[in-house]
C-alpha cells in the first residue's frame, strides 16, 4: 500500500513539474533592444536571454527581415507576437521553441493573450474565456495565458466572454482581429461593499451568543423557536447555531436558518439559508439564499440569492441572482442577474443580466443584457433583446443615430434616436433661416420602431410632436406627426431615409404672431377648425421627410 501511494504521488509530482515547465521559456520576461537587425540574429540573441533554442525552417520564415524595437520586461511570447504579428505559431517542446507558419486567416484565427489583475498587475489563472457562438473555450494557465482557435470566421466582429469567480464578467469585442491581447480584469466589489451589512444589528460582537455562533461548527436543528431578542429565547445563547422549522420572534431573532416560517415583530436575522415564509415588521437579513416569500416593513437584505418573492415597504437588496419577483416603492437591487420581475415606484438595478421585466417609474439599469422589457422614464442596458420603453433609453449596443434632413416645413432638421430598433426615443430640432427679425425653429420629442424588411432595408414608424416658434416660445403651436418611411443602409454607419407623413397642427388662436407654417412648400391644408372654448385651432395636411442618418 505504501509503495502504491509512493508511486502515485511521484507520478503526480512529475506531471506537475512537466506541466509547469511546458511554457517556462515562452513566459520568461526579458528586456532587449533591437535596431535594424536581421531576424535570425535577433532570434539568436533572444534565445540566449530566455535560455532556449528556436527551431524553424528558413524557407518558411523570412530570416532576412529587419527588426527594430524596444522590449522592457516583456515575456518571450509577447516579443514574438510583436515581431511576427500573428503570422507565426510557436510552442515549447523541451528546451526548444518551435516556430511554424500560422493557418491562413480565412480558415482559422487564433486569439490568445494574458488576463491581468487591473490593480495588482498579477496574472489571473483559472479564468474561462469562451466564444458564445461556437462555445469553444480556454482556461488560463498558471501564467494567465489563454488561446482559442476560431474556424471559418465571418467578416463581423468577434466576441469573447471572460468569467472568473472573483472578477467582474468581461465582454471582449474585437474589430481589428489582432491575435494577441493583454486584458485587464477588475475584481468584484459587491462583497466588499456589503461587508458592513453582514454585521448589521450584531451589536454584541463580543457577547457569548456571537462567540458561540463562531465556535460551534455543527448545525443544530429544532422544530420551534421563540425569542424576545437575539439570545433571549428558547434556543438561548446557541440560537445563532440552530436552524429552526418555525421561529417566532417578539422583537427580533437570530438563528442559523429557517426551514418553514419565521415571524419577527421588528427584525429577523439568519446566518444561513431561509426557506418558506419570512415576515418582519422592519427588516429581514439573510446571510444565505432565500427560497420562498420574504416580506418586510422597511427592507430585505439577502447576501446570497433569491428564488421566490421579495417585497418590502422601502427597498430590497439581493447580492446574487434573483429568480422570481422583487417589489418595493423605493429601490430593488440585484447584485447578480434576475430571471423574473423587478417592480418599483422609483428605480430598479441589476448588476448583470435581466431575463424578464424591469418596471420602475423613474428608471431601470441593467449592467448586462436584457432579454425582455424595461419600462421607466429612463432606462439603461448593455444590450436588449426585446424593448426598453420610456422617455429616454440608452442601450450601449443598441440603436443610436444622428440624422440630418428636411421636410415641408424646415429645410434643416436634426434628430437623435436612441434605444433599440424595437423601440427608440427621438429628440429633434428644426430651423428655417428667414429674413424676418426672428428665426423660425422648433424642438420636439417622439417615439418609433424600425423593423427589418431586408438585408439593408428597414421600415420606420414614428410618432412625433414639436413646438414651432418664431424667436421665443410664446404660445402653443404644436406640429404632431405620424411618419411611415423607409431606411436604406448605403454603407456601414450611413443610411438614407424618406417617406410620407400625416400632420396635425394645434395652435393658440388668441396669439397673432405665429410663424408662417410653410415657406418652401405649399401642401394642401384641410380639416381646418376651431375649438372656441379652448382658444385652439387645427390644421391637417400630408407631408414628406427625407435625409441621411449616421451611426
TrEMBL record:
Superkingdom of source: Bacteria
Protein name: Carboxypeptidase-like regulatory domain-containing protein
